[in-house]
Amino acid sequence: MIPVELAFAVLLTSRLRAAKFYKTMVFLPYIINGVAIAYAFSYFFSPVNGAFDNILEMLRLEMLKHSWLSDEKIVNFTLTFVSLWRFSGYHIVLFMAALQSVNQDIMEAATIDGANSWQMFRYIQTPSIALMVDFVLFDNIRGAMQVFDIPFVMTSGGPGYASSTFTLYTINTAFKFSNFGLASTMAVALMVIIILIYIVQNKIIHGFFLKEGK
Hints:
The chain is mainly α. 74% of the residues lie in helices and 0% in strands. It starts with a helix and ends with a helix.
């Protein structure tokens, strides 16, 4: 979703009509408490009078109705959608802040030289905010590995262990099975994994943008 979020950020930093309203709307889900969002979407995707299935019926798409939170084949896609809805606005705002720091003299020079919007986006704006792209990608990976509230409230890791996460399993190990030593080790292992992922990711991202710059 990072390219889509970045594209929205570019659109909202341009002279778009009612841009302030759109900025508020995309950032609003991030302000709402995660547990409240999880409860709301639990009812939204409920197989018993769930709003989503009712919407499908109104659109005459009954064949698409599904057990969104109890089918192990699609439950993670449902949870992913909820997470994207909550955090995408936050990332868009970060990209917007980064885009506003791009040197406008370079943008004007590129415009005079005949560069179109896509060329400026690819060769000027995106490389100029490489650090922010790096941060958002890391935030996505870290958040995916540490996510707890949405799967805990919506599915409790089910059906079975289909939507269980490392953090959820760690907390269950500590407080459900009272194995605090193992849970502490798992938490430290997760921290080490995240650090290693960031080191590898940082080298790949900077290598990519260095190549693009050349």
